[in-house]
Design goal:
single chain, alpha/beta, Nucleotidyltransferase, domain 5, 15 strands
């Protein structure tokens, strides 16, 4: 039977059939790093799954500490550790999906942690993923509100260079107002305005069925690992979003998961020509009707924004976007402010209160819009001197009223000229300002021939000598 004596002896000594067991190879280079790797695994096991590092990131972390071994050794060690300390999970079955070019794009939100301007904070990230080419786009916001959803779509379509036929969503409150039986949904009216503008079909997933948009669900975890681990640090959202757009283009050079002989970028190039072109810009704002207070303010998200004094006590349309607050009255834009995402902030434009100052000049000294007004240095010097003079409040208000027509730059130059002259008063600054903004006189005047003098007088200044007692010369 061509069996060796040790084989026969082994079978005689056992009751069950012997099975081959693979012996894991020894990893000598990992030995001195096992304690550090174990400490990382124990520490991260206390975190949420979204904040844990993958095996690849753990391997890169060991490399920074001097580890020169292979990735497989780290992978096997992590697998053995998790098999001993974590309970096994049941595998759920799914159906593979197939999409045509330019047919569908998937959307989702995620919460990430970044450091902006030296402050650690949680942000919301909007994720888009073209289902055919796997081209992704991500953009960050302070909050997850409807105006952010609208702005994210505008940015995504500009990045993709067109609009797909369908967009697939969860049942977000900013997108879906009501969920009915089956696939029937009542979409938000403002969101439908966006969909009708760009002519795409919104599709909502079945509740608790994230696999229907599994690509973007998987992208959320990958982006967190690729872009937000370790902690991302930027000065502002503008710099962060510019970096995210660049990284989306760089990550598109990876291999396509289905068409292995092509990159994501090359597949997207084929898909991009089939996207519906963008014919007009969409103004993604959310509108609220509010009444202006007697202090010329409207309240938006626990912050107050100034409005021109002429609108005090009137109802206005407040249009909030992802980064701006605009106030519209009678179909005209009357004020615009950068949006603040802090609380209890006062965002004022001092020019809105000039008509009030004309009647109440005493408010110039302690009025909140004017105390924090960052005026150019020459104007500040002139203001401090004029306010010390009698009726200085009213005099400086008159200068501001005139500067409201001429511009702040002209007032700055006029104040510089007054300071150079050494005499600073409201009339002198006003005179300098009027000289700067006065129209140029015509050098020559065309006179019709029929009114020309037949005998023009001579320019003889000696005729005035008789005033001094001299003889008059004709």
């Amino acid at each position: 039977m061509k069996l060796s004596r040790p084989t026969v002896r082994k079978h005689l000594a056992t009751v069950e059939e012997p099975k081959y067991q693979r012996v894991q190879p020894v990893a000598p280079k990992l030995g001195q790093f096992e304690a550090q790797l174990t400490a990382w695994l124990v520490e991260e096991s206390k975190l949420s799954k979204s904040r844990r590092r993958s095996r690849q990131r753990l391997f890169e972390g060991l490399q920074t500490l001097g580890y020169s071994g292979a990735y497989d050794s780290v992978q096997r060690f992590v697998s053995r550790w998790k098999s001993r300390h974590q309970s096994p999970k049941l595998t759920e079955a799914f159906v593979p999906l197939h999409f045509q070019p330019a047919d569908a794009c998937q959307f989702d939100w995620s919460q990430e942690q970044v450091e902006l301007g030296g402050v650690l904070q949680h942000i919301k990230v909007a994720h888009f993923r073209m289902a055919y080419s796997r081209q992704m786009f991500v953009v960050a916001y302070p909050r997850e509100q409807q105006e952010m959803v609208l702005d994210a779509h505008v940015r995504a379509f500009m990045f993709f260079g067109g609009v797909p036929m369908r967009l697939i969503y969860d049942n977000l409150k900013t997108v879906v107002d009501a969920v009915y039986v089956g696939k029937e949904r009542q979409f938000n009216r403002r969101f439908l305005t966006l969909a009708n503008h760009y002519l795409f079909e919104p599709v909502a997933c079945t509740p608790a069925s994230g696999w229907e948009k599994g690509q973007v669900e998987n992208q959320v975890g990958n982006v967190r690992e690729w872009l937000f681990t370790p902690l991302a640090r930027f000065a502002s959202f503008v710099e962060l979003n510019a970096w995210l757009a660049t990284r989306c283009q760089e990550l598109a050079q990876r291999q396509h998961p289905v068409q292995s002989d092509r990159t994501i970028a090359s597949c997207f190039a084929d898909e991009q020509v089939l996207l519906r072109p963008i014919t007009a810009h969409f103004d993604g704002y959310v509108e609220h009707m509010l009444r202006v207070s007697s202090t010329c303010l409207v309240r938006v998200d626990r912050n107050r924004y100034s409005v021109p004094a002429s609108a005090a006590g009137k109802a206005v349309s407040v249009r909030t976007t992802a980064d701006q607050v605009r106030i519209v009255a009678n179909g005209e834009l009357i004020a615009a402010h950068p949006r603040s995402f802090e609380r209890d902030q006062l965002v004022c434009d001092p020019w809105h209160y000039l008509p009030v100052l004309e009647k109440k000049p005493g408010a110039l000294r302690n009025g909140a819009p004017f105390v924090t007004w960052d005026l150019p240095r020459p104007i500040q010097l002139v203001r401090d001197r004029i306010l010390k003079q009698p009726k200085g409040d009213r005099s400086f208000v008159e200068l501001l009223m005139l500067a409201g027509e001429a511009g702040l730059d002209a007032l700055t130059v006029a104040c510089e000229l007054a300071l150079e002259g050494g005499i600073v008063s409201a009339p002198i600054v006003m005179n300098e300002l009027r000289r700067l903004v006065a129209p140029n006189l015509l050098m020559a005047i065309n006179v019709p021939d029929n009114i020309a003098l037949t005998l023009e007088p001579l320019a003889n200044c000696q005729r005035y000598d008789y005033l001094l007692g001299g003889a008059y010369v004709h």
